[in-house]
Specification:
disordered C terminus, binds zinc ion, 2 domains, about 350 residues, Rossmann fold, seven-stranded mixed sheet, single chain, 18 strands, six-stranded parallel sheet
Length: about 350
């Protein structure tokens, strides 16, 4: 019989709180790699705000129960039939893009993130809140040898999607960039922009004084609360928040021709009524534009990993054990975390119990 592993699986949706019972730590069978797939022994899996969207039904998994997690770093320990690359023993990452069809118009244009058959790790296929996962050989990413595995985890989502957002902002050297929301992705984008656009001043909007202090420490020109007015209009703003107030505030401070990039898989409905105050002249006129970031491509992930090792990007990490996943998610939800939350899998005790369910 196959071996067993621990996995933290989502069984039902609900509002994430300390009493939420829908996430359960279970012992299940280690999956077998199918044709073209590898089996990865997971060392770390980043915790992302998107898991909260999955749990709270704004980006629901395609089936339940589902093992969440899409910022996975581990070692390839087995290969299925038809694998062509020599990946055994290598440290690899799995990002949000689990697979795309490779044949449609979007895929052929380098927009596999928009593929109609896009599958997401930890949403459409079991992800990294577990000791093992399988992934298509073509969609795993080698982690640069100089990069500590634990730090690679948040780079695979917060970093890669932040990189895509920065690219979509069309920022030119010397143009001002605003970041609204200063979580894991915002912090990484700040460091990337400082490296790629050293002459571009950075303005950070964050709800906590602690985050604003950190922004200044990391080289932001200015940091203020979401509603505050920066000292000058901004050429581009990247929004990484789950709410609407920052969208309106950012549109109001954009310079003519300014671009707002919304980097969120969904927005919460709590303050959606604010949109009734959208004012054409103040928020939209003078060729301001809005674009959302949807998913990532493999090229985004690989370019980011290469860039991260050049800078180098070394995100601050807050580690949790697999059985503490709920605690990590709650810390992200409340904004009460000063680094990127990462699950460390190698501290999990292998259970001697038999599998009680199958994948
Ligand atoms: Zn993510
Ligand atoms: Zn496609």
């Amino acid at each position: 019989m196959p071996g067993t592993m621990r996995a933290m699986r989502l069984h039902r949706h609900g509002l994430l709180s300390r009493d939420f019972q829908g996430l359960q730590l279970e012992t299940i069978a280690i999956p077998e790699p199918a044709q073209g797939e590898v089996l990865i022994k997971i060392a770390f899996c980043g915790i992302c705000h998107t898991e909260i969207d999955e749990i709270e039904n704004r980006a629901p998994p395609s089936s339940l129960p589902m093992t969440l997690g899409h910022q996975v770093v581990g070692t390839v320990v087995a290969q299925g039939a038809g694998c062509r690359l020599e990946m055994l023993g290598k440290t690899v990452g799995v990002a949000w893009i689990f697979s795309a069809c490779g044949k449609c118009k979007q895929c052929l244009q380098g927009l596999e993130n928009l593929c109609g058959d896009f599958l997401a790790s930890g949403r459409d296929r079991p992800g990294g809140y577990a000791e093992y996962m399988t992934a298509a050989e073509a969609f795993i990413h080698e982690i640069p040898p100089t990069m500590p595995a634990v730090q690679a985890a948040p780079l695979l989502c917060a970093g890669a999607v932040g990189y895509r957002a920065l690219r979509l902002s069309g920022l030119q050297t010397g143009e001002s960039l605003g970041l609204t929301g200063f979580g894991s992705s915002g912090r990484l984008v700040l460091q990337m922009s400082r490296f790629l656009f050293p002459d571009s001043p950075l303005y950070v909007f964050a709800r906590s004084a602690q985050e604003r202090d950190l922004a200044l420490e990391l080289g932001a020109q200015w940091a203020g609360d979401t509603r505050e007015q920066p000292p000058c209009p901004l050429n581009a703003v990247i929004d990484t928040t789950p709410v609407w107030l920052p969208v309106l505030s950012a549109l109001a401070v954009l310079a003519p021709g300014g671009r707002l990039i919304i980097n969120a898989i969904g927005k919460e409905s709590g303050d959606q009524n604010l949109l009734t105050s959208l004012d054409y002249a103040r928020h939209l006129w003078r060729e301001k534009s809005i674009k959302t970031v949807a998913n990532v491509t493999r090229a985004d992930v690989r370019s980011l990993l290469a860039l991260a090792s050049r800078i180098p990007l070394a995100p601050k990490i807050v580690e949790y054990r697999l059985d503490q996943a709920l605690e990590g998610l709650l810390a992200i939800k409340s904004g009460n975390i000063t680094g990127a939350g990462v699950l460390r899998l190698d501290t999990v005790q292998i259970s001697p119990r038999r599998a009680n369910s199958t994948m």
